[in-house]
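The step that takes the researchers longest sounds almost clerical: writing a folded protein down as plain text. The outcome of that step, for a single protein, is printed below.
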Amino acid sequence: MLIKCLLRGQRPLQKFVNRGLQQSSQPGVVKSIYSDLEIPDENLCDFFLKRAAIRSDLPAIVCGYTGKSFTYTDIAQQIRKIGGGLLDSGHKVGSKAAIMLPNIPEFGPILYACLGIGTVIVPVSPMLTPSELNRILSLSKPDSVFTLKGMEGKMKEVIPNLPVKPQVFYVDEENEQTAFKQLIKTEESKFDSREDFDLEENIAILPFSSGTTGLPKGVMLSHRNIMANDVILNCIESGCAVEPYFPGTGEPQPSVYSVIPLYHIYGMTCNIIQPMSAGIKVVLLPKFEPELFMNVLSTYKPNFLNLVPPLVSFIAHSPAIQRDVHLTNCRTISSGGSPLGIHTIKALEQKIHPFPIVIKEGFGMSECPLVMRTKVFTPGSVGKIINNTQVKIIDTETGEMLGPNKPGEMCIKGPQVMKGYYENEKETKAALKDGWLHTGDILYYDENMDFYVVDRIKDMIKVKGFQVSPTELEDEIKNMKGIFEVSVIGVKHDKYGEAPKAFIVKSDPNVTEELVHEWLKDKVVHYKQLSGGIVFLDELPKSPTGKVLRKELKQL
């Protein structure tokens, strides 16, 4: 059985238990080629605070827009003050705090303060409509909300409808008597009155799935899940790009650039938790604006870029981005959220040549923040399974485990896999079966144990009984000159049941429906042709992390 872990226990490091999995010889189960790592029996906040003391006056977070910055000492002090203030206001283990902030320096200390006292973090997008916000806050029932003054009108509209009326902390208010200003004046010693709690059982972060294919679900990630994910993220053996940094080495402090939202699990784990646990300087940008994005690149010259495909595409294709101006110190460009297109990869390789910049891809989800990543870049692949993790690919109809080069549903076991969906037993039972997370993603792996994303099960199109992958069609259409972006969905069809329909953003105004149909004519079998039609758009609807919102396309 798993050993129960307490908040401030000082026991030695413990291997992630479940050693039977490590010895598994079950056919079809693919185990990571990398060594299993030891996961500290420690709260992530305490883990950070110990290391912050060593890094003291080094910059931890900088806002690329305002220049506002916090050192590691600043953040450690704010963690203790905010945590102590929340305890004073009635927070306890299991209380919840929604963080509805853009990428600003305050996000860091608020995040760690909540983790330190056992308050569950509910990350929320500030861009949600009142209706969407009402749904998320009604489901999660936070006791507090951290946001900006510009959200006050939206909060006043939503709060009367909520089952729990949260206290709202407006982080950017200047008045010294406001709630947040009072919070950060709390005596640091009050933080020490926090309770111990079980790291395995207690929820650390409650992100809500993006809802690109249905209603959002609250994903319960325990403190153990988040600690395991951070330790694995920091592993050089399995592909981490940067060594932990300590002062006194004579080397400059590395930096990472974060423009993807910190309220998304990718941004939170890869652009705030991981770099800050490693002593890296985090340069934040509250939102993407091309000119500002480029100014931060040229001013701060970050070493590591964790991005999503649309941002990688911008760097690759924009003539305004110059290698010798914007990428002079860049060591690694990593992408996640969805696979990079081959045209983007080729354009990026051409732009960065001969700089020794490493391109990386990875794969994760809210339910399991990191599953695989590339150590040596293989175009089209999202990499190999990371440490402490197992994967099996199963037939979507029979459940039979499949071998190499056979696409099927990916199922995952590992210490970073969620506990379940919040107050949703039905969806939890559907996703977690016999210890395996059934992801709904179609992947396959080759003889080198490199994995490739095919599609989502829910996105597959059934034409006259044949399964058609939207991604396959998108890749073929992207190869046509004059195509900037494309997304394919299935639509109802009187004759075929379902049929593929393409939504296309042109880079050449001369592209027509007839030319697209002609392009595909000899490239895919007849039932994969775009018999559902073609629509040209100025832009595709996307989530903040760059995922195309297929459900919005279905409404067009």
